[in-house]
Structure prediction request, 446 residues.
Amino acid sequence: MTTVQSVQPPPTTAIRPRVVARTGLYAVLAANVAVVAFFFVQAGFASNTLIVLGRLTGLYGALLMAFQLLLVARLPWLDRRIGMDRLTSWHRWTGFGILWTLLAHAVFITYGYAESSSLDPVNQLVDLAETVEGVLRAVVALAIIMVVGAVSARYARRRLAYETWHFIHLYTYVAVVLAFTHQVAAGTTFATSSAATAYWYVVWGAALASVFAGRLVLPLWRNWRHQLRVTAVVPESDNVVSVYMSGRDLDRLPARAGQFFLWRFLTRDRWWQANPFSLSAAPDGRTLRLTAKAAGDGSAALRHVKVGTRVFAEGPYGAFTAMHRTRPEALLIAGGVGVTPIRALLEELDGHAVVLYRVAADRDAVLYGELQELAHAKGAELHLLTGPVSPDKLAPGELVRLVPDIADRDVFLCGPPPMMNAVLGSLRELNVPRTQIHFERFSLAG
Prediction:
């Protein structure tokens, strides 16, 4: 698959898609913060300062939970402009914000009511749970969020299998439902006026509808429409394999070079497992291709997938595309099997390109023959950099020697995390503008 496609870069004066999306998200959040403050003031203040602070932190905790749902909804418009890795990072920090905000809500409310009664804080909390509708549900929701927060901390996350962490994380949706019913039952500001009630129903309805649409309806619709099946399984080396798929109306699938899907091959033993793999060829409206290295059970099993196997694909995801180009010329840097989205991008990009492919040895250069054909067809420069990690073949001096005009190019980078971190440091040292550096890490929001 070496067909040559071209996508013109946007004018250098155009507003960047990532800036538009990020500014839009910030504006939506800021507007809702202001609306919540308005309804809070309109409802009046309790005489006890702690209770006032407790109600306010509870409202902002609820707003952050709704915003959190928007971040994990995998909405195409946001994903292709911001990228799932960045949305996942925001999701993580918003999650910790929710945890601390709701903890503050519980502490302020408990101590505030205890100050007005003769009960100690523990007995006051028990009394509230027994006598006020919705409080017990809120306590359960907070406990779930604390557990999820604990297993999401870096120390715990590194020691848990992804499937275990993901299963625990799904209980967050239970916490969301419990928290909302608590807000409906006990939220003073929620019921202060018909406008406030309508506002909260719209906020929660929009957030839940986003998740329902992005995580369920859209994937089901696309897979019903396109009916993907495996058409060929081609070994590229001893531990790398390419899988070709075809289906219906693939010219209407909004996939671009550089993006990835979550692939489920519907075999008896693997239908439940989804793996993220990038497209290794630019979509041509007839076939899709992934190329994967055997790094675990899921990727190793691809070599044994049978032709005709049905495929359930979620996506496309990712902002590692030509949509974010700022300059007419490009530098593409790949490391190891990270060459797959780079190879697809080279097929699509217009303008002069330089490709740097870093591997330990020549035998590790997956798809190198295709890269040579594409580079020849498009007039691109291709450099295969082999050898041990030291000396660094992608150090600042080496990059400038190979690409003297590096600061005037868009740089697309994909490879193992240590290599990517080192190259990003080199690009900073060479004063390549951040807006010209494009990379993405595999991170799944929610």
